Amino acid sequence: MSDHTVLLVVSVLMSGLVAPGPVNQETGGSTPAEIDSCTTITESGHYALTADILNSTEATCIRIEADDVVLDGAGHTIDGNWSVLRENTGVGDSLFEAFANATEIGTANATVSQWAYHGVFVSESENVTISGLTVRDWVYGIAFFDVTDGNIRGVTTEQTATGVGLFQSTTIRTEAVESTNSTIGVVLDDVSVSSVTNSEINNSVLDGMELFETTGSSIVENTIRNTGRYDGLYLRNSSQNTVRDNDIGSNTLSGIALARGSNSNIVESNLVEQNGLNGILVRDNSVLNTVTNNTLEANAHSGVSVVDGANQNIVQGNVIRNTTGEDPYTAQVNYSAGIVINQSSRNQVTENWVQGNAYSGITLTNEANENFLTGNTILNTTGVEITVPETFRTVSVDHPAAIFIDRSSENVIRETYVRDSELWSYYSTAVASQNIVRNLTVASIRRYNVSTDPTEAAEFSFVEVATVVSFTGRNVALDANVTEGIIEPDWEPSRSAPRVNEVGTSENSTLENMSVRWYLRAVPTELVENTTNRRVRATTTTTTVEGETT
Length: 550
Prior knowledge:
By secondary structure, the chain is mainly β. The chain contains 6 helices and 49 strands. The protein has a 20-stranded parallel beta barrel. The protein has a 4-stranded antiparallel sheet with strand order 43-44-45-46, with no helix packed on it. A two-stranded antiparallel sheet has the order 36-37. The chain is elongated. It starts with 9 loop residues before the first helix and ends with a strand.
C-alpha cells in the first residue's frame, strides 16, 4: 500500500494577490455590509454576499485579515475561473492530477504562483465564521491559517483541490460541509481541539478527509464515500482524536486509516462498509488506539487490520461481517480475515462478533506476538477459493480457518466460540509456537474430508489447552513443532456418533481438560442401544473415554 502525505507550504497559503477594494465595518453594526465582488476584509463586523461572484480571475477572492468577522454567503457562489487557474498553475487540463501528485510526494512545485488560489482565505485571526456559501473551481475552496475560534458551516465546495483546509489553527468547528469532486475534501493540518461534523464528502481524488499532526479533535456524524485513490479518512501522526458515528464506504483502500504514529485515538460506532481493502486500518507504529462498537460490513481484505508495529491497541465489541477477499492484496498475501494482526504485539481483541468472512475469522501472522484475544464469537467463516476480478484468476487459500495463526507466538486466546466454519476451526502453522488456547467452543463445523456429513451432529467443546502446545485444529490437531498430532472426530456410516482418535502427539504436547460432546443423529434401532454420550480427556500418553448410556 502506498503511503501518502500532504505538505502545505506556509508561504503558499499566505501568498497570492490581495483582492482589490478592502471592506471595513465596525463591530456591532445591525445591518451586514454588502459584498458583491472579490475583496479583503480588514475590520471586525458582519458581512454578507449579495450576488454570485463568477469566473473570478483573482488569486484569492475573499481574504479576511481581522478578528470577530461573520461572512454570510446567503446562498451565493464564489466561482473561480478554471481556465485561468489551469493556465496559471502551468499544468493545463491535468491540474487535479498534478496537485494530487504534488501533495502525495510531499514536495512537487508547491510554489507561490502555482497553488495559492483560494475562494476564501482567513489568516491570523480570531472568532471568524463562514456560512451559507458555495465555492467552486479553486485550489483551496476555504482555507484557515493560524486561526483561533472559528466556524465553517453550511458550506458547499465543488471541484477544488482541497475543499476545506485548516492549518495551524485551534478550536475550529466545521459543520454541514458538502464537498464533491475535490482532490481532498477536508484537511486538518497541525490543528487542535477542533471538529468536523454532519458533513458529506464524495468522490475525492485522494482521501475524503485527512488529519496531519492533529490532536484533541472530533470527526463525528460525517458521510465519506467513493474516494478514487486512497482512504475515506486518513490520520497521520495525529493523536487523542475521536472518530465517531460516521458513515464511511466504497473507498478505494481503507475506510479509516490510522498511520505513522497516530496514537490514543478513539474510533467508535462507525459504519464502515464496502471499502476496497480494509474497513479500519491501524498501522505504522500507531499505538494505544481504541477501535470499538463499529459495524464493518463487506470490506475486501479485512474488517480491522492492525499491522506494522501497531502495538497495544484495543479492538473491542465490533461487528465484522462478510469480508469478501476480492481484492488484489488478498491475492498477493493469500489470506483475508475479519480481523488481522500482522507484525504487531500486545493488542487486545475482545468481544467482537465476526461472521461470514472469507478465509479466516481472525488471523495472526508474521510475528504477531503476545496478543490477547478473549470473548470473541466467530461464525460462518467461508471461502476456500477467492476469485479476484482484476486478475481474473482464482486464489486457493492454504488453510481456511475460523482462527489462523502463522509465525506468531505467545498469544492468548480465551473464551472463544466458533460455529459453522468451513474446514478448520483453529489452525496454527508449524512455526507458530507457545500460543495459549483456553475455553474454545466449536459447534456445527462443516468439514470436507469426512465419510459422512455430520449435519445433525456437532457441538464440540475444547477447553484448557496446555500452554506449551502450538494448538492446531480441524477440529483439534496438535503441532508442537516436532511431530504433528491429530485428535479428530471421525464419522462413518455405521456409527451414530464420532469416535475420537489420538495420533502421534509429541512428548511435550498435551491437552488438558478437553471435552467433546455431540448430538445423536437418527440411526437404526439396533444401534441406539449402543449409543453413548462421551467425555474424552487426552494426554500425550493416554486416552480415557467416559460415557453414559442415553
